[in-house]
Structure to design on (232 residues):
């Protein structure tokens, strides 16, 4: 079964450093997402991406965050200057683009980011 | 107002018994989808079951069924014949609107522990 692949599974970074989280969505999917889950809390939407541009972003997704799909296969989330509160599990997801409401996303297995 | 409310932070159930995980939702959109995801300790998000707002019958998927009460805006997950492998976090989620690429709203989750 096709899967969304996220690397690394765990990343530790110093506060103030830039970090790039990588995702390889399912190949024929058209919509891409990042969500985050602070430890013990709910999963929160960050951003959606379609046709090489951001289609929606939450208030969490400020100027410190950016996304891109540099080569048609990878989908990355960059955090420019990490803060302690950025420590969380980050989930990438992708979606086919069919119009039926039925379809759930396919989530990746997540990257646990720890900012020290 | 919270879009998705899960009021049970933790639940215990005896192996082979049934358990109900509660979820209420809030939306003014007539078209929406309700989803349940399982998150084992390894962290990945596993899609379990879906219920559309126009579906007349409750959704079922194997041992999972969704008790959909539209007037009460509730979408409880019922797991029959619990197994030790069902021990995990369970998230209720909603997507509003007719398009399946819209973002998810997640609840805060219920941690289910299945006792042998």
């Amino acid at each position: 079964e096709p899967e969304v692949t996220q690397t690394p599974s765990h990343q530790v970074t110093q506060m103030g450093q830039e970090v790039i989280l990588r995702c390889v969505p399912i190949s024929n999917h058209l919509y891409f997402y990042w969500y985050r889950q602070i430890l013990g809390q709910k999963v929160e939407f960050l951003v959606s991406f379609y046709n090489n541009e951001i289609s929606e972003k939450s208030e969490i997704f400020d100027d410190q965050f950016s996304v891109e799909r540099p080569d048609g296969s990878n989908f990355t989330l960059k955090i420019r200057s990490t803060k302690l509160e950025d420590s969380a599990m980050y989930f990438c997801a992708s979606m086919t683009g069919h119009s039926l409401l039925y379809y759930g996303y396919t989530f990746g297995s997540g990257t646990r980011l720890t900012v020290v | 107002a919270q879009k998705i409310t899960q009021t049970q932070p933790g639940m215990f159930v005896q192996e082979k018994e049934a358990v109900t995980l509660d979820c209420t939702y809030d939306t003014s959109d007539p078209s929406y989808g309700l989803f349940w995801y399982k998150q084992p300790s390894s962290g990945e998000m596993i899609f379990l079951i879906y219920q559309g707002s126009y579906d007349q019958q409750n959704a079922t998927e194997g041992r999972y069924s969704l008790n959909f009460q539209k007037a009460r805006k509730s979408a409880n997950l019922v797991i029959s014949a619990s197994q030790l492998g069902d021990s995990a976090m369970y998230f209720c989620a909603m997507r509003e609107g007719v398009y399946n690429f819209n973002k998810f709203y997640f609840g805060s989750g219920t941690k289910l522990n299945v006792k042998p």
